[in-house]
Design brief:
Layout (H helix, E strand, L loop, with lengths): L4 H19 L1 H9 L3 H13 L1
Helix pairs in contact: 2-3
Length: about 50
């Protein structure tokens, strides 16, 4: 079963978007939630420690 070139392009855009969102999760979450970046980072670090 072959994928269409447009289907592969959409898949690639989604994968790259997910990677970028993970890499820049702290600034994105801070902007969405209206919280300071250091507060978001501390919350993420607390979850990693458990």
């Amino acid at each position: 079963m072959k994928g269409t070139p447009m289907g592969w392009f959409i898949f690639l855009v989604i994968v790259i978007g997910a990677i970028a969102a993970y890499k820049y999760r702290v600034p994105l979450l801070a902007k969405i939630l209206g919280q300071p970046q250091d507060r978001i980072q501390r919350a993420i670090d607390r979850k990693k420690g458990k």
